[in-house]
Amino acid sequence: MKRLLGLLLLMSASVWLAACQEDSQLPEKSVFKEDEMPQDGEPLKIGFAMDTLKEERWLKDRELFEQAIESRGLEVDIAAANGDDALQIAQAEEMIQEGIDLLVIVPHNAEATAAIVHKAHGAGIKVIAYDRLVKNAEIDLYVSFDNEKVGELQAEKMLELVPEGNYVYIGGAPTDNNAHLLKKGVFDVLQPAIERGDINIIYDEWTEDWAPEQAFAHMSQALEINGNQIDAVIAANDATAGGAIEALAQQGLAGSVPVAGQDAELAAVQRIVDGTQSMTVYKPIQQLSERVAALAVELAEGNEIEPTVSINNGKSEVPSVLLEPTAVDIGNLESTILADNFHSEEEIDGME
């Protein structure tokens, strides 16, 4: 019995020694405190600082951009300032402090938001200007539709409908660089007709914050000053077009004076069907949100992007991607807006 116990003890000791030798050959295990765990597995986070959600168009942008980012396995932090410059700067600063990997911004004020770009770059964060250009800042990328082309399409349609007569121009927000690009496109096309004396610009005003009620006031004033002798209206977007059409309606002129807008908002498409708005410019924002999301991932991962277009913003030549807009009237509504499911027939009241 004693010999048996001794043998068992000797075997146990041998097993223990072998185990110790095996452990000594294993690599040392790293020990992390909870707040020191590696962060490599965390998804990239994109900040989306928006000007406003007061218009239907921007609600669509928010939804589509969020879907585009999350479908790529990234996180997105979205904030809207609703036209408040100080709030937009504060919202962007908070995103930067919380450690976003890239900032996408829709500026309310093209110049004021340069401060956001400086702060982001100071934190090593790249910035994409979404749909609207930021002025006087070293923007990493600008993605939008060709806004001069939007204005050209509006003016071309109006000249087709009204080759001679009195024109009213209801501009967008003077703080928005897009409003200036739109106006340039409009007047580049109208200028030859103006010089020939075929058309007269009898009213031309900006609209603060693209507000429909201010567009209504402008149109009412234009009608009063000119004794209702107005033949065509070009409005900077569908919201301002809606305000102008409301003023025309009060004078019994809705439907008899052609009106151009842009954005293809549901209300504008309904007005096109009803005959009170002549055209809009369709900008498929699903293409815009998808393109920005894809480019945001590339930039956030440190990859280089080499667009073929650059736009001067007063500070530098900004690498840019410009998408193509489409003029839409009652004739091609079905093949554009409906075909893309931008709006459905059920949504468009009165659509046959």
TrEMBL record:
This is Ribose ABC transporter substrate-binding protein. Residues 46-304 form the Periplasmic binding protein domain. Coiled coil: none annotated. GO terms for biological process: D-xylose transmembrane transport. Its main location: other. GO terms for cellular component: outer membrane-bounded periplasmic space. It comes from Planococcus rifietoensis. Gene3D superfamilies: 3.40.50.2300. Pfam families: Peripla_BP_4 (PF13407). It is found in: Cell envelope. Keywords: Signal. One of its GO terms (molecular function) is monosaccharide binding. Residues 1-18 form the signal peptide. The keyword Cell wall biogenesis/degradation does not apply. InterPro entries: Bact_Solute-Bind_Prot2, Peripla_BP_I, SBP_2_dom, XylF. Transmembrane segments: none annotated.
